[in-house]
Amino acid sequence: QVQLLESGGGLVQAGGSLRLSCVASGRPLSILSMGWFRQAPGKEREFVGGINWSGGNTTYGDSVKGRFTISRDNAQNTVYLQMDALKSEDTAVYYCGGVFGRRVYTEVSDYDYWGQGTQVTVSS
């Protein structure tokens, strides 16, 4: 079993930055492909970015390309989401997901494990 715990959310002004962290426990992070998703009120959960087991491959959703960066430190069992140039439309609860696999996964249904989420609010 894998447990995921996100942190780093908060309130930030438009144009600002935040870095989210997701710590994995229960199994080594190195055997998991990881992803970040977000969900705004009344909307479906949306893919933000994914990273393969080694960190060598990443993929991003169109709405965050060029602004967000996903990375991982397997030795620290932690995945990060650096969010820059934040916009009001980035406001959502952000979730990290994990799945046993070696490639990047982009669909909600691909993931077996989820954290509880962390709120990000961007004021305009």
| Low-pLDDT stretches | none
Proportion of residues in helical segments: under 10%
Largest sheet: 7 strands, mixed
Q: Decide which structural class fits the backbone.
A: mainly beta
Instruction: List the secondary-structure elements in sequence, H or E.
Output: EEEEEEEEEEE
Q: How large is the count of helical segments?
A: 0
Rounded mean pLDDT score: 97
- Overall radius of gyration: 13 Å
Task: State which percent range the strand residues make up.
Answer: over 45%
Cα end-to-end separation: 40 Å
Total number of β-strand segments?
Answer: 11
Bulk shape:
globular
Describe the protein in words.
The structure is a single chain. The protein has 124 residues and is an all-beta fold. The protein contains no helices and 11 strands. The strands form 2 sheets. Strands 2, 4, 5, 6, 9, 10 and 11 form a 7-stranded mixed sheet that branches. A 4-stranded antiparallel sheet has the order 1-3-8-7, with no helix packed on it. The model has no long low-confidence stretch (mean pLDDT 97).
What is this entry, summarized?
The chain has 124 residues and is mostly beta strands. It is built from no helices and 11 strands.
Pick out its properties.
single chain, globular, mainly beta, 11 strands, 124 residues, four-stranded antiparallel sheet, seven-stranded mixed sheet
